[in-house]
Amino acid sequence: MSIEPLSWGRGSTLNDVELQTDTAVQTEHQRWSVPARSANLEAVRAALTSKDSLGVIITGGRGVGKSSLARTAVSELGPDVWALQLRSGHPASKTPYGCLSFLLARLPQAYMGSPTAILRGITSLIRSDAAGRPCVITLDTAGSIDDMSAGVLLNVLLTGTARIVAVAPRSSDLPADFHWLLTERRLTEVRLDNLNELQTRQVLLTMLGHRVSASLVNIYHSMVGGNPLLLKALVTEQQLSGNLVLSDSVWTLRDKVVLDGAASLDDIVRSRWARKTPETRDVIEMLSCARSVDLSRLTSIFGAGIVADMEDAGLLDIDGSDSRWVSLREKYLGDVVRSWLSIARRRELRAQLLDGKEPDPASMTVEELMAFAAWTRECEAELSPAMALAAAEASVQLFDPHSALTYAETLTRNDPQWVSGQRQKAAAYLLLDLPIQAMAALDDITRPQLDSLDAEEYAQVVAARSTVMVWLPELTGRVPGMLEEARARLGVGPELAKGWPAPLAVAANRISLSEFEYKAFVGDFASMVPALEAASNAARNPDVSFRMNAAIILMTALSLTGREMDALSLMRTLGGQISDAAQIVGLREEYTSRAYAVLLTAGQWRRCIDLLDPPESRDAHRLPYRSAATELAAGIAYVYSGRGAAALDPLLSAAAQLELRPVQSSLRSAYAATALAYAQIGNAGQSRRYLEKVQRSAGPCDFLTGSIIEFCADMAGRWLGENDAVSRLKDSARRNIDAGRFTVAGISLLGATVNGTEADFRLLEQVAGQRQGPLAEIARLIAVGSRTKDAKTLLTGGELAATLELDAVEARCMALAVDYARQAGDSVSARTAQARLDILAATVANLPIVPSSGSPLLTSRERQIARLAGRGASNRDIALEMGVSVRTVEGHLYQVFTKLGVTSRGDLTGLV
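^ that's the sequence the OP posted. Answer follows.
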């Protein structure tokens, strides 16, 4: 069919609403989700530019960003493409030419006589408007388009008049002819799914314009299931409520996310709610209140059919546990629906689920306890004292101190659980970095109440007091005396208790564990190693809880006193036993946090990162809680490895969260590590800014945390060239040597001796001899190589540092090796060291040492040419591949040969 442009003298004017001629103009809200869709965008772009393609169909659920992706793809084609926007009407509407009505109105009357004439007229009109430019039609379908419109669009595509970007929930919503084109591969389908967590982070970065904390990403992603439309609504609501705040250039949450009164999300949920059956609504209401329900119980109330249908529809999530717990797949749905329900309705649902039987707290997991307690509180019903205590304990375990305080406050002094409740209050106050209030909660226990306690509960109170007192400097020194007083009252000694599991033996062991915890807090590790070894011996100690906790502390003590490999071996042994002792409260979390410290001090920072698993695969072995603690741990691991650039994101995020919700001494750790990260990348101004923050935030901390703070702050000063920082590192090393903490001393000396004296290197070598493992051997090789000016020894040290991926330490070895090798006339070692240093320059932004006699590092172009030449490529081949002249290649090769000290292309192999 031949169609020529017509004269449209009597046609109507162009409808600017339907026809967009400037495809470059797009408001920012149309593009906010695009950064997470780069792969999808590339697929759409390829389909629109491919020679044999007629276009693309973008499918996906509501709110996944189909229309936004379509608009972006068309806009990126540039102003030379004519863009035509079409939209179908209501799904029930079958008005002929519905989506083409604005074009139909422009046709002269002569073309209105038959469908064929209309088809030819609209096709020609599109060509005329395009004025010789390629045309792309965007079709946004709210429902199936009418047959007449479908026929015109098919003709437009097959005649090459335009290509199409069709947007629909499913490809089945489009005309049958489109399916034929899909089958023939003339159209490409691009399916959009909800965002994964990484994509959610990219979208939040685009929307908010600053860094976002990992906890914010994790919470928002889990709440909306990765739906971009809901994510945008949630962000808007949280900004308006003041819960989403910008803290030191990082977006984070001030408190829990509460959706009560969230208007935009409320509207979205109501639109979905209206389409649900009454039975489905009842199940959603039940799960919104209970959070999760046993599958058998849910089906007994509502029937297996409705539950199965809801699971098939993607509304429910059923876990793989024995109880088969059922919850709403989209958390925001439950949060919004719950805000609609009256107190009476909540109580009605609770009574329906419980059927007059309150669950036994002893049979519930911590998550189940939290959900049940929250529901009870929302119903304004009373928790039994046993349930209130159990909920408070669960809240402390899940790092929810505010809930713990709420539940503990419901206990009265006359309740048998009141003393235990005070212990939970003290633990909650400590989580909030309020040791004075924690001590006050324990001091509220009267002497008559203490005297009336049995041996086990008395020991628990003493242990709680010890845990709080170490955080109050004026009381820390009184802890040993208090523990001795407790032993005297119980009539036991410091040795392993006999007669376990008798209550008195359990109590005595708890006092001994408190003593170990106190010594670990103040750093007295060497003196307690023999007692810890005895307590962790299964043949001598049948008390599993005491034995496992003692072994975990022993693991730390060994790692800090120079027995790093013994500590790693014990860590592996304990890791295999943890699952068998899962009933011991807090044991896994304690093990994981101390295992992190063992790996960190052994130089195995990569395994530290592996310990902090991503949310999708993180199981019960993870650190106790997401957010600030995990991000801080990751950031510290990165700075210990010398990767300041990689450390900044998690550290800044952790600091922002900790400024809003302080957690003991963690904020100082974040400040010190951030100062070191900035120093490592050469940003002296920001580094000094964070060092000042460290000084302003002084406070008590345990020995291990204090050593990390001190080391990071002093190392930041050393990177900044402060002489006092080097002196502080050496003083710290001497104190640790005197206390038998050789690992900590060795790490400090390794940092202090970058420009050390012969005496410094002899001390470093001496301390390395008191330690185990590769990090100790690296320190020894650096000490010997620096003292004797032996390049080969330093090369060996650098190679060993490379196995631990300690780039900054390796760079130090290689820089010294370059100097010493050239001084000794060892050109082979000099070339090897220089080549390795050249590669390290890509990851170590600020070298700890720059070779004084070495030539400058290769530029990126020199490195590229050297690699091609080393593979045997001729100068002409290199010039063609890189798009430069042969003379340019020759000049760069001359520079490469000069810098690396080589004379032939063959010498380049393995050097770059």
